[in-house]
Amino acid sequence: MENVRPIGADVYEIDTRMAGCPGVTAGYLILADRPCLIETGTSTSTPTVRKALSALGIGPDDLATVVVTHIHLDHAGGVGDIAAAYPSAEIVVHERGARHLADPSRLLASARMVWGDKLDTLFGTLRPTEASRIRALGETGTIDLGFGRHLSCYYTPGHAKHHVGLLDSLTGDLYVGDAAGVYLPETGDLRPATPPPDFDLDAALKSIDLFRSLQPERVLFTHYGPVEDVQPILERAAEELRIWVDLTKQAKAEGLDLDHAVAMVREKTKQRYKTTEGDPTLQGLETLTGAEANVAGIMHWLDRTQQG
Questions:
Q1: Where are the domains of the chain?
Q2: Cα–Cα dist 129/80, whole Å
Q3: Cα separation of 51 and 248, whole Å?
Q4: Residues in the chain with pLDDT values less than 70
Q5: Which parts of the sequence belong to the Metallo-beta-lactamase domain (predicted)?
Q6: CATH of domain 4-305
Q7: Rounded distance, CA 201 to CA 206, Å?
């Protein structure tokens, strides 16, 4: 299948084709003795993901585990549908997100306030998962992949209060979700992901420091794809966060409203990236985690912590 790519050590990148767009959100299948899907994508992506799993030989009773790095709908919106389609799979999520997978009503109501009618097109509806099938992670945890291979799970807030990173014991692959930002493989650009309401600079930087300390062999971004030059990309992740926060602080100090702050930050960061804001390759990601969402998240953090 054109949306499935082997990336080594029985790991397969699955383009979930979020809202029909390629290269926006990846899921990863670890085809180990106990197969594990990392990230489901949106509810509307479920048919695409199921076809990919089928093409890789995963039948309804074959998937052992589904784990999501956090419960934002581009990562976990399909959990309920995938859980129903693969009844033997255990669903793994951080403890702060577990109740929202069991009862998504509050999460969907909040998302509806942000996205309005776009919610249905972009994400669809997160369906409930039986609470008995959900395993809630704390600060750390382990997911058994069979034959001694496992994923070590680490609590990594900053982007979201319910975020975890995952390290494969066999490969050294580190699944970072959104905690290290958004990577564009076409250009090598890395941009921050700092949406409201949970963004916290101090927590985000600590999470990136934790990633560094794990000394992974490769970083796998949900947006989008694997990066082998690990330490430079994690250093860039921290640098981008500091730059965007400093610029947003400056805009706030100058009394700019959100629209003008976004315009200022866009203008002052555009030279950092090979791809401009208007480039078609950015449109899908710009919708999810563009400058407006990033600046709004930083502003919210500044107001909450009375910084700037």
A1: 4-305
A2: 5
A3: 43
A4: 275-284, 287, 307-308
A5: 24-223
A6: 3.60.15.10
A7: 9
